[in-house]
């Protein structure tokens, strides 16, 4: 009985009608809007000259570069090991010396462990590849 009191369900959404309503709304907006392409300055407000845009060729002046600024900027982009002879903080001390203490040798099995495949790992590798292919083609 509670379902009868709710009333009639809404009709499904009709995409064609929604598109027609949208087109009508756009045409109404375009009728009442005016596109301004010519802009001017307010003659009653005082203008202040500012510096040119940094990325503009026309506003950059005569092309001179500030060598001091470039030097400071290049230094700021360097790694701390290139900037300072010794670490400046305790956190820098941890990774300051990155050179290995012992030269690595690929033929020494104590420190070098290449990936080895046994019969079971080869079988499971093929099994997982087959399972991935089935899941890709089974979802179509």
SSE topology sketch:
Elements: H1 2-5, H2 15-32, H3 67-76, H4 80-83, H5 90-94, H6 119-138
Describe the structure.
By secondary structure, the chain is mostly helical. The protein has a domain at 66-95. It has 6 helices and no strands. It has helices at residues 2-5, 15-32, 67-76, 80-83, 90-94, 119-138. The radius of gyration is 36 Å and the shape is flat. It holds the Pfam family FAM183.
Count the beta strands: 0
Helix-strand topology string: HHHHHH
Query: Which secondary-structure class do the elements indicate?
Result: mainly alpha
Overall pLDDT confidence: 82
Subcellular location: Cell projection, Cilium; Cytoplasm, Cytoskeleton
InterPro entries: CFAP144 (IPR029214)
Family: Belongs to the CFAP144 family.
Pfam family, one: FAM183
List keywords for this structure.
140 residues, mainly alpha
What is the compact description of this entry?
The protein has helices at about 1-5, 15-30, 65-75, 80-85, 90-95, 120-140. By secondary structure, the protein is mainly alpha-helical. InterPro entries: CFAP144.
């Amino acid at each position: 009985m509670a379902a009868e009191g709710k009333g009639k369900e809404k009709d499904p959404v009709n995409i064609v009608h929604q598109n027609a309503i949208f087109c009508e709304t756009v045409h109404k907006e375009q009728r009442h809007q005016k596109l301004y392409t010519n802009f001017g300055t307010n003659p009653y407000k005082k203008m202040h000259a500012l510096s040119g845009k940094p990325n503009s060729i026309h506003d950059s002046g005569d092309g001179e570069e500030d060598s001091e600024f470039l030097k400071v900027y290049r230094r700021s982009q360097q790694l701390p090991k290139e900037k300072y002879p010794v670490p400046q903080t305790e956190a820098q001390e941890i990774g300051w010396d990155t050179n290995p203490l012992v030269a690595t040798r690929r033929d020494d099995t104590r420190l070098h462990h290449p990936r080895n495949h046994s019969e079971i790992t080869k079988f499971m590798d093929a099994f997982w590849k087959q399972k991935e292919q089935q899941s890709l083609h089974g979802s179509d």
